[in-house]
Amino acid sequence: MSEINNDVLAAIAMAIYELQDEVHDVESNVLTIKRQPQEYLPWAAKELLFRQQPNKM
To answer: What is the Cα–Cα distance from 47 to 51, expressed in whole angstroms?
Structure first.
């Protein structure tokens, strides 16, 4: 079995490294949060969960 020259191994390693970098998308690293208006849900309205306290005389 013949040995592979170190220069050839280095070239193969660099080619593999370059191919791995091309797989990933270029991202802007900017996170955008948009608030969506929510529809009114009576079952989730917290003001409907509170009970009125009776008047004590």
So the answer is: 9
Instruction: For the chain, give the number of residues.
Output: 57
How many CB atoms are closer than 10 A to CB 19? 9
Three-state secondary-structure class, residue 40: coil
Domain boundaries, position 28: 6-48
Token pair 């970098």 in the structure block, residue: 21
7-49 pLDDT, tens per residue? Answer: 889 999 998 888 876 666 667 778 788 877 777 777 777 766 6
Distance from C-alpha of 27 to C-alpha of 29, rounded to nearest angstrom: 6
Quote the pTM value.
0.35
